[in-house]
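Pipeline run #58 for the internal structure catalog. This entry was flagged by the ingest filter as a single-chain record with no existing model, so it goes straight to prediction. Upstream metadata was stripped on purpose; only the residue string is passed forward. Reviewer on rotation: M.T. Logging verbosity set to normal.
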Amino acid sequence: MPLVSVVIPAYNSARTLEDCVRSVCAQTAADWEIVIVDDGSADGTAALSRGFGREDARIRLISQGNAGTAAARARGVKESRGRWIAFLDADDRWLPEKLEAQLSLAGRTGAELLYTAAACIDPAGNETGRIFSAPPAIDFDRLLRGNAIVCSSVLIKREWAERFPMEHAELHEDYLCWLRVLRAGCLARGVTAPLTQYRISPSSKSGNKLRSAAMTWRTLRTAGVPFARRCGCFLSYAAHGIRRYH
C-alpha cells in the first residue's frame, strides 16, 4: 500500500501529460503511486500512459469512456490504494518538495486536507508571475467567500475522498467537494509556498468568467447554502475573483 495515490484525470492530454507525470516522479517523497484515468481520449494519451507504466510499476492506467473530469477523479480514487489521495490535473505540475512539505504539515497539525499556493503558467508552461496564494488555514465559513483551494494542490486523507467523491461535472466539482468536506469537520491547512504550478487555459471552466460565476452560484446552491447567505457569499466570490485574477 503506497502512502500517496496521485490521481490524474486525462482527456486528450498527450501534449502536457509527460511534464505532469515527471513532476511526480521528481518528488522528494517517493512512497507514491500514480493512477492516470484516461477519460476517452482520442489522441495519444493512453499510449503515453502505458509507456510510463512500463518505465515505472508505480504508474497505472485506467481507461474509461468520456464521462468528465469529476467522474474520472472519482474513478481514480476508487481504483487507488494509498492512505492519502493527491489530485493533479494533466496540464498542471508540482515542484519536487510538494508532497514532502504537505505530509510534514499534516504530521505537525493533524490536518487531513492539505493544499498549497500555486504559481500560474501559460499554455507553453512558462511562469506568468501570477500567484494564487494559499491561507495557512481555512474552514467552511472562509471557503464560502471564495475557493482558495487549487484542486491540483490538494492532498486529502483517503477516508474523506471516499466519503465525499467528486460529482456534478456541470458545477465546480472540486469546490463542492471541499465545502462538503470542511462542513463535515475536516481540518484543512495550507502550505503558503507555491509548490503547485497551475496552467491557465481559456478553454477551462474558470477561463470563461461569466460561465464560472454562474457555476459558482449553482455550486453554492447544491452545497445547501441558504439563498440570503448565498447572495453574500457570491459577492465575496466576485471580490475574491477580482483580486485573484487582476
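catalog note: The radius of gyration is 17 Å.
catalog note: DSSP finds nine helices and ten strands in the chain.
status: ready for reviewer M.T.
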